[in-house]
Amino acid sequence: MALDLLKIRHQFPALHRKEIYLDNPGGTQAAKNSLDRMLEYLIESNANHAGAFATSRASDAVIAKARAAMADFLNAARPEEIIFGQNMTTLAFHLSRSLARIFRPGDTIVVTRLDHDANISPWLLLAEDCGCAVEWVDFHPQDGTLDMASLERALDKKPRLVAVGYASNALGTVNPVEKITALAHRAGALVFIDAVHYAPHGPIDVRAGDFDFLACSSYKFFGPHMGILYGRRELLEELFAYKVRPASDSLPTKFETGTQNHEAIAGLLGTLEYFEWLGREFGKGLTIAGEGTYQGRPLLYKQALTAVRTYEKDLSLALLRALRETPETKIFGLTDTARFDERVPTYSFRLPNVPPRRIAEEMDKDGVFVWDGNYYALEVTRRLGVEETGGLVRAGAVHYNTPDEIAHFGKSLARIAKG
Q1: Is there a contact between 247 and 255 (Cβ–Cβ < 8 Å)?
Q2: What mean pLDDT do residues 228-257 have?
Q3: CB 151 within 8 Å of CB 189
Q4: N or C terminus: fewer CB in 10 A for the chain?
Q5: β-strand 330-332 against 346-350: which pairing, if any?
Q6: Does residue 348 contact residue 171 with C-beta atoms inside 8 Å?
């Protein structure tokens, strides 16, 4: 069933504005369910954890519901495998500190030049602290895809950890994470997946992928500013957690340092309820990979994100056409339409003789929001040779964007190119 954009856009109050949000890779707009849940929490159950009174019990119940829903969203085996935190970056640094207790001098860590720095710097610092070696996996500048031969050479070092992104926040590339995980496990490595950029664009199944750890951030998939870490229970139970002494040693709160952002967790629950609605409304009749293995809420989530993935291929094509209609535009990343399964509708580009910041400022005058710079994908802009000249311009669509919005973006770009 095709997406009804009028119905969908009605679920996002911020879209009453006339501007066009193509800054989505930096953060999407929040679904109404998410906003309603946050307000309800602050009015009806605003309290701290584990109190002997009604609002505390109600608060804990909301958090438990959100944790169970997030486990279903990722198809985790149990809610205790879901850790809440400030953001993906903070959670990765927290986990790196725990892993540093079991890593030894001479161990190897693998990172990639295609990743956001939140999936690089925590591991570089871990390596520095523990005396570990670092192996870098390159990507192909021509099309923005990961260099699998480079990965296989790195795996020959028998690393302890492989850190890789599900999708590039700079170039839109979707990595073959299940294949990478299988290769890494064969080499004896743990795998950490940064799914922040992929989460709004397609279904995730941590069990089918056999991932050890996976992190994402709900403000990138239509919710509030917070992060989520999945970890296999046996790994989380074995790892030492840096925490205050009175805090519980049991999962999941073992890794949740201090009081969490309860209203944001309530907002996450509302966001996941939006995905349930999306699955019920638009997920029927779609072919779902591994469909027979899903039931109930996990199936709704897979249907919702499959519908999104299908629609967003059209958005990818529209963005590519809009960019190509301005001949001076240099596009970075995959442009082969036959390979659109390997990308999400996130494009980075440049115009000759126009700094990226100036392009973003000019588009703002036309009511189009885009990002410029390196978006913390520092190794990407370095590898492409554009870091010293302002980085790139990035336009990223999600399923609430429309073809008309993409067309307006294209007209803005053409105006700027004409000077």
Answers
A1: no
A2: 96
A3: no
A4: C
A5: antiparallel
A6: yes
Q: What is the pTM of this model?
A: 0.97
Rounded CA separation 134/385 (Å): 22
As for how many domains the chain has, the answer is 2
The pLDDT assigned to 287 comes to: 83
* Cα-based angle 293, 299, 302 (whole degrees, multiple of 5): 105
Determine which helix (DSSP H) or strand (DSSP E) holds 110, and give its type and residue range. Answer: strand 108-112
Q: What is the pLDDT of residue 343?
A: 98
CB-count burial class (<10 Å; 0-12, 13-18, 19+) for 249: exposed
List the domain range (segments joined by +) for residue 260.
34-274
65 and 139 co-located in one domain: yes
Residue at 376 is within a domain? yes
Please give the full DSSP string across 367-412, using - where no structure is assigned. TEE-EEE-TT-HHHHHHTT-GGGTBEEEEE--TT--HHHHHHHHHH
Residue 368: φ, ψ to 5°: -120, 125
Is position 286 within any domain?
Answer: no
Angle between helices 262-282 and 296-324 (to 10 degrees): 80
Q: What was the pLDDT predicted at 285? A: 84
Question: Within 10 A of 290 (CB to CB), how many other CB atoms are there?
Answer: 12
